[in-house]
Amino acid sequence: MRNAQGFKKRYLLILLLPVLVWAAFKIAHFNPLEQRLLQTIPVTSQVNLYITEASAGATTDFSYRFYLYDARKDAHAFMASLKDDQQPFMITSHRNALQKVDDGAIYLSVKGTVYRFTNTPSCRVGNSIYSVPVYLTATPY
Questions:
Q1: How far apart are CA 67 and CA 48, in angstroms?
Q2: Domain residues of the chain, as ranges?
Q3: Cα separation of 114 and 63, whole Å?
């Protein structure tokens, strides 16, 4: 029986190696955060303000994320850019933080937690960087 044909373990490893590499790649890039677009507000002719509602699962609270994005592109392009790790200029627990957009500036009032805030957010518009002033008033509750 020593000369009998059999399945060698190295062939199994060669067959499973691509599957293992693909699984490792998927696990490394797994992100449970889901975002839903709530509002799109024009700030200037070059930039829009996008507000999303984010959830990381059933046991977490919603967070609200504020982004600046090129006004020449549509909402589908914006949602696709979120997969490319675009960072919001503000993350908060308050759903109705936006007060108004006036004269190219954004006015926010948060009653709750501010997890992240950048007071001079910017975004790429064509080949240039465009920034918008943001004015924030925040209270704990």
A1: 8
A2: 34-139
A3: 10
Dihedral angle computed from the Cα positions of residues 123, 129, 130 and 131, in that order, rounded to the nearest 10 degrees: 70
pLDDT: which is higher, 113 or 23: 113
On the 0-12 / 13-18 / 19+ scale of CB atoms within 10 A, 48 is: buried
Give dist(CA 8, CA 119) in Å, integer. Answer: 62
Structure tokens at 68: 């600046």
Top pLDDT among 6 and 89 is at 89
Bridging pattern class, strands 134-139 and 105-111: parallel
- Mean of the per-residue pLDDT values for the chain? 87
Picking from 64, 130, 118, 109, the residue whose alpha carbon sits closest to that of residue 89 is 118
Predicted TM-score of the model (pTM): 0.76
Residue 83, judged by CB atoms within 10 A of its CB (0-12, 13-18, 19+), counts as exposed
d(CA 19, CA 21): 6
Q: Which amino acid is at 51?
A: I
